[in-house]
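We examine the record.

___
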Amino acid sequence: MLIVGFPARELATNCWVVAPDGGRHCVVIDPGVGVADRVRTTLREHDLQLAAVLLTHGHLDHTFDAAEICGAYGVAAYLHPADRSQLTDPARGLGVPTGVPLFGRTNFAEPAEVSDLADGLRLELADLDITVTGSPGHTPGSVLFGMRDGQSPVCFSGDTLFAGSIGRMDLPGGSEETMARTLAEVVWPLPDDTVVHPGHGPSTTMATERATNPYLLQRTSR
């Protein structure tokens, strides 16, 4: 599997380009602020055609360039409906007044086509078999995207799980109680050999996080 990751211009949000080995199509996960040019370059370098844009949740630092990229390649964005309103009104997910400039922009629009994600949904895109698992807590519509790289499981965790940390829960729609359930019932059971590619920071494995992540240990020991 080809996995190319790079940070966005603002808040170092990880954007991921993912394609099967030898494949001609790919998906883009979480295109944040100012990544559109890097996405285009990556697709040209690897001779890839974009099949879809996948969004782990609705926060603007993960969706900022989604409409531009979807429009340029004529593809749909996939997002859980609980976070969809943030595409046109991202301020509501950040706890700031509507109309306040965000990363230099005041007007926001959805991609032309937005498809709903749901817990347990299975997507077949770009010759990839993708499982969608609801992981609310950071936002109501947060999800994990699961794939396989050969025999190894891969998880794109957005802002649910980081290397050594978890996503914040103090923004509108965030919930400590809900995150605790997600960590115990969704994240903790992931296999040790799962490679986790988060929304910020370095990649990790579930074996490492299960042994060392203080937030994960604290919340699953209650």
Remarks:
- The mean pLDDT is 96.
- The chain has one domain: 2-220.
- The helical segments are 36-45, 60-63, 66-73, 91-94, 176-187, 206-212, 214-220.
